[in-house]
Specification:
The complex is a heterodimer of chains A (about 850) and B (about 130). Chain A has 25 helices and five strands. Chain A has about 850 residues and is mainly α. The longest helix of chain A is centred in the N-terminal third of the chain and has 35 residues, at about 70-105. Classes of the chains: A mainly alpha (about 850), B mainly alpha (about 130).
């Protein structure tokens, strides 16, 4: 079948299967990626406006010297919330929102891999934003900067709830970002249209994939940093307190191990948007596609080697910081490859100067300036001169506004017709661009100069006669012009929604699959799933002499919410996946988590326990999905779609990939914790610190035996699961294995509790006690979760079908259990044996 | 093995082994990561010790050698994948060509970053 997807008759069964719920359920229970993506975009834009208003308050204060519009405390609060809002609540969620809307359409499928997790991630983002802004209502606004350096933000210098709002809000939000990242990775790797092999993936997919992987590896470091700060502030641990053997530089290491990659977490999908916009509006494929795709991977990898370049002035020795200076130069190379590829594409193309293309061009100019000043600050002596000055403020706004916000605007203009079915006004679009572009440069370019003149950042006012007046006045004037640009854009979007010209399915003559369906797309996205044969399937469709066409899978996949899963590299179909239906559970789970976070803030720990327990119950209900038992359906699809290897999703379903990715991010979290242990130990005069004695080895040896027995029982239990027609499940043996594993796990936890009780030190004794209890306690919590999961699958053995090859719950739980066991070996080696041996 | 009308088959692809591809793509940058972290740790905690400088040089030699190996692995895969003219290649060869091209860039970058780090050792020094 080769007709364009939008023209194909749609079966009533397909419509019914993907029907949106009505009224309240539509608002609260939807799992449709398009609705959720739009919610992300609108919510993030609202936060952008709030952050923009905060910027306006700061620019008003700094417009003239010795101004008293804002006092120092209010200024601290406003710049803290401005940075926090723009990074955490605007840029990241906006890009997630665009990805959530566009990615499934672009890869030719019907939804994202985990639709309910997607809904949960959105609700958590929303509630986290409301939570942190509640601080204004109770007049306890965070005021330690969005980077929250200790000791300023520690219990001694930031009293009150302000920084507690910040730490808990960021921890809370991390759940959402991690969930979204796992969703993107599994969706892109396992749900691409048949034929969309890695060498044919649109560049936006490379950007989003690299972003998501970078998040999974970088975010645990921020999670750990904020967790340690929250514990120092509420429990009295001493991770960052030098008096107790702690180290304030630990914060900077952990924060920037996340913080520098975060710049690229934002940039990578933004670069993908630019590649998409440039190709479509220059009407030719991106030049040097393989290099641009790989440059995106290279940026993601190199981003992890730059964190110390934020710490050049902390007193670290010259040689260690020189390594990071060198790495900072290297990352300019892949960024340069992308820039040259876009310029070459534009140079040889037939450019349509649409508003989205204008923003893409504006991006190239500003990003190059931001990149050059980045290379300047990568030089240690130069960085020493401009550190914490307005030069740095100018630099990172060129990178983040020029490099991220402009691409976001380019993307919003590019996909607006697809989302709404209406065209925007070209005149208003161009006006929005020019006001924004000129206003942005007028705001931030003078800040390079005033920084070089010595104006420090984060000051609420300055004296007359320092030569900074004109630059600050120009910056404030630029802010006004920039604001006009944003208002024009909003006006354009609102007016076009009501009165814009009809867009049609493909107004830009785009190259990728989202233009193969109607505008706006139906709930099922495509009546028949597309099959692709090139990087630009839509252009093949128009130019058959180039050898391609959009092909469609013959089976409409309409017996329920059905989609294909495909192999990661070659996108060969390998299974049919049944997607979940709308549910209130994601909302309820997010509410339970919110209750737990609020309880932590007000130090009602019973509330926290209850919130987490309810969350656990909701998750248990959420995951209680029986595997589909439909072999006839598989045979039918094989025959009608001519896909010989297709099978019903079982152990290799996306859930398996999700579990593996969850384990990866948890592994990185523990890796960061162990690294923190070594950093604290390396700087301590003695280890254990103070009067604390060496750890006993007998009890840990017993614990090791128990956890190994638990893992072995779980392994044995997994062997009892049916593997094929000749290998039936042995339910009683399976239950016995699970029970044994749980028993060993509970025994481990009980004995470790006894070890904690017997210890002659506690988490607040000194930094050694803090890190010891953190590592062993976090491991115990993981084992507790593993025991709970084993109990859950044990109960399911009485209720769930035992069709061979269709159980993915026990392999997943087993994998998590073995991971927890492996962690224990690491902990035993480092925390117990290592203290004796090294 | 039969091929259906969409070009998909039931067999496994006949391209390069996934582990070799993995090494060709990431074998150049992973040594750089090791070089960076290990050199940073050595410089922080061992500088002042007589052998520190030699440990740093040794790290450079070992990791640079791995990067070069990854580069030539990628080059070999690329040459094999492009034996036939474009348009006559199998999907697996197309994929190998793409990934090997990426491996060349990543290995080159990794090697360059390692040499940049070694330059810092030579200039800044780490003697007793």
């Amino acid at each position: 079948m080769t007709a364009p997807a939008a023209e194909v008759a749609v079966s009533g069964r397909l419509r019914r299967a993907w029907e949106r719920p009505h009224a309240i359920a539509r608002a609260l229970a939807t799992v449709d990626h398009k609705q959720i993506g739009l919610r992300y975009i609108v919510t993030a834009f609202a936060f952008f406006l709030i952050g923009g208003i905060e910027a306006g308050l700061m620019r008003t204060q700094l417009a003239v010297p010795e101004n008293d519009f804002l006092g120092p405390q209010a200024y601290n609060q406003i710049f803290t919330m401005h940075g926090t809002t723009m990074i955490f609540y605007f840029a990241t969620p906006m890009l997630i929102g665009i990805g959530t809307y566009v990615v499934p359409l672009m890869i030719g499928t019907r939804d994202i891999a985990f639709p309910r997790l997607n809904a949960f991630a959105y609700w958590v983002f929303l509630f986290s934003g409301i939570f942190i802004y509640t601080s204004f209502l109770v007049e306890e606004v965070p005021d330690g900067g969005w980077f929250a350096y200790v000791p300023l933000t520690g219990p001694d210098y930031s009293q009150g709830l302000g920084m507690d709002f910040w730490t808990l809000g960021i921890l809370f939000l991390g759940t959402s970002t991690t969930a979204a990242s796992i969703n993107f990775i599994v969706t892109i790797l396992r749900m691409r249209a048949p034929g969309m092999a890695v060498q044919r993936m649109p560049l936006l997919l490379w950007g989003v994939l690299d972003m998501a992987i970078t998040v999974l590896i970088a975010l645990p470091s921020l999670t750990l940093a904020t967790l340690l700060l929250a514990l120092d502030r509420t429990v009295g641990t001493q991770f960052y307190d030098p008096a107790g053997g702690g180290n304030p530089l630990l914060w900077q290491h952990l924060f920037w191990i996340w913080g520098h990659p975060e710049v690229y977490i934002l940039l990578l999908p933004a670069l993908g948007i630019i590649s998409t916009v440039v190709a479509v509006h220059a009407r030719r494929e991106i030049v040097m596609y393989p290099l641009v795709a790989v440059a995106s991977i290279a940026i993601g990898i190199l981003a992890f080697g730059l964190w110390v370049h934020h710490m050049f002035s902390t007193g670290l020795d010259l040689l260690p910081i020189s390594f990071f200076s060198a790495a900072s130069f290297t990352i300019a190379i892949p960024s340069g490859i992308s820039i040259f590829a876009w310029i070459a594409t534009i140079y040889g193309g037939r450019v349509r100067f649409s508003p989205s293309m204008m923003f893409a061009l504006g991006f190239i100019v500003t990003f190059v300036i931001g990149g050059i000043t980045g290379v300047m600050t990568a030089m240690v002596p130069f960085d020493w001169q401009v550190h914490d000055s307005y030069f740095v403020v100018a630099h990172f706004h060129y990178v983040l506004v020029g490099g991220v916000v402009f691409p976001i605007f380019a993307g919003l203009y590019h996909w607006y017709p697809k989302v709404t079915g209406r065209m925007t006004s070209p005149a208003l679009g161009h006006a929005a661009f020019w006001f924004t572009f000129l206003g942005f440069n007028l705001t931030f370019f003078p800040q390079h100069i005033v920084g070089m003149l010595g104006m420090p950042r984060r000051v609420y006012t300055y004296a007359e006669g320092l030569g900074w007046e004109i630059h600050n006045l120009l910056s404030t004037a630029g802010y006004v012009v920039l604001t006009v640009g944003i208002l024009v854009m909003i006006t354009d979007f609102l007016m076009s929604r009501a009165n814009g010209a009809p867009a049609g399915d493909d107004p830009w003559e785009g190259d990728s699959l989202e233009w193969a369906t109607t505008s706006p797309p139906p709930t099922y996205n495509f009546p028949y799933l597309p099959v692709v044969h090139s990087r630009s399937p839509m252009w093949d469709d128009r130019t058959p002499e180039r050898g391609g066409h959009i092909d469609l899978v013959e089976d409409p996949l309409d017996e329920g919410r059905e989609v294909f899963t495909t192999s990661a590299l070659d996108a060969t179909p390998d299974a049919v996946l049944r997607m979940p239906t709308p549910s209130y559970l994601p909302l309820l789970a997010a509410l339970a988590l919110t209750a737990a976070v609020v309880s932590m803030l007000v130090e009602v720990y019973v509330g926290w326990v209850v919130g987490i327990a309810i969350l656990g119950l909701i998750l248990a209900a959420w995951l209680w999905t029986s595997p589909e038992d439909a072999p006839q359906r598989v045979a039918q699809i094989r025959e009608r779609a001519h896909l010989p290897v297709v099978q019903l999703a079982g152990p290799h379903a996306p859930g398996r990939w999700g579990m593996i990715l969850f384990i990866v991010t948890e592994g990185v979290l523990f890796g960061s914790t162990i690294s923190s242990y070594f950093l604290l130990r390396g700087d301590a005069p003695s280890w254990p610190v103070g009067e604390v004695g060496l750890p006993d080895l007998v009890m840990p040896a017993i614990l090791t035996g128990l956890i190994v027995l638990g893992s072995a029982s779980m392994f044995w239990a997994q062997r009892q699961v049916a593997g094929g027609p000749d290998e039936p499940e042995r339910p009683n043996a399976l239950r016995l294995g699970l029970l044994l594993a749980m028993a060993f796990g509970v025994a481990f936890l009980a004995l470790q509790g006894y070890e904690f009780w017997q210890a002659d030190f506690g988490p607040t004794t000194n930094a050694y006690g803090s890190i010891f209890f953190l590592i062993t306690g976090a491991h115990a919590a993981h084992l507790g979760v593993a025991v709970g999961m084993a109990g859950w699958v044990l109960i399911r053995t009485w209720f769930v079908s035992h069709e061979p090859g269709h159980r993915s719950d026990i392999p997943n739980v087993s994998l998590f259990w073995h991971f927890v066991t492996a962690l224990w070996f690491l902990i035993f080696t480092v925390v117990y044996l290592g203290v004796h041996v090294l | 093995m039969s091929t259906n009308e969409h070009g998909f088959t039931g067999r496994k692809p006949r391209g390069t082994h996934p582990l070799i591809l993995l090494f060709a793509v990431f074998g150049g940058t992973m040594p750089w990561t090791v070089h960076l972290i290990a050199s940073y740790s050595v410089a922080n905690y061992m500088c002042g010790n007589d052998i520190a400088l030699w440990v740093l040089h040794g790290l450079t030699v070992a990791t640079a050698a791995l990067s070069v190996t990854a580069f030539f692995t990628a080059l070999t895969i690329l040459r094999r994948a492009t034996r036939h003219p474009s348009g006559e290649r199998t999907p697996e060869e197309d994929r190998d060509q793409f990934l090997a091209s990426g491996g060349l860039l990543l290995a080159g970058l990794g090697f360059m970053a390692i040499i940049f780090g070694e330059t810092a050792v030579v200039i800044a020094g780490c003697g007793p």
